[in-house]
Amino acid sequence: MGDHDDLRKFITDLAVVHGRVVLSSGREADWYVDLRRVTLHHQAAPLVGRALLDLTADWEYEAVGGLTLGADPVALSMLHAAAPTGRALDAFVVRKAGKAHGLQRRIEGPEVAGRRVLAVEDTSTTGGSVLTAVEALREAGAEVVGVAVIVDRGAGDAVRAAGLPYRAAYTLADLGLVA
């Protein structure tokens, strides 16, 4: 099996949780995909990085990140997966709100102004979190080349409507889940 198949197995075995839950969008579902069980797992995290680098291999970007918390381990996995290939890829974290002390930065990490960046998220239903990150990145002077997620729960239309290319490593159908 390759990275993509191996990662799918980790997702279905570790991240898919059955039972009634309320999503961040306010919608209710009979199952939840808790991707932090995968993105923070010692064996699965490297697969996340390689899978998303492969998914976006034809996009040119210098840094990757998104709204904290879902995007943080995804961006770090990509940063670490890129390093052995010789690719210089920085990561950044977008805060939900600006900091009131210190440097008062909303985007932490290397400067994004004037750079081509990729916005990522672990999973997205409405696109709200990743579009919040995109707005902050644009305000900071970054050029957002696209959005990539591990699992798409339906955000693609909203992200594309905002004028951004959108890719997902897996759809709900890929995971055997019904929307």
Highlighted features:
two-stranded antiparallel sheet, pyrimidine biosynthesis, alpha/beta, Orotate phosphoribosyltransferase, 6-stranded mixed β-sheet, Rossmann fold, 179 residues, Or_phspho_trans_dom, single chain
Map the helices and strands.
Blueprint: H1 3-15, E1 16-22, E2 28-33, H2 36-39, H3 44-55, E3 63-67, H4 72-82, E4 90-94, E5 107-108, E6 116-124, H5 128-139, E7 143-152, H6 156-161, E8 166-171
Parallel strand pairs: 3-4, 3-6, 6-7, 7-8
Antiparallel strand pairs: 1-2, 4-5
Pathway: Pyrimidine metabolism; UMP biosynthesis via de novo pathway; UMP from orotate: step 1/2
Keywords: Glycosyltransferase, Magnesium, Pyrimidine biosynthesis, Transferase
GO molecular function, one term: magnesium ion binding
Beta fraction? 25-35%
Helix content: 25-40%
Q: What is the CATH architecture term?
A: 3-Layer(aba) Sandwich
In total, the number of strands is 8
Low-confidence parts lasting 5 or more residues at pLDDT below 50?
none
How would you write the strand order of the largest sheet? 5-4-3-6-7-8
Q: Overall mean pLDDT score?
A: 93
| Class per helix and strand makeup | alpha/beta
Report Rg: 16 Å
Terminal-residue CA separation: 27 Å
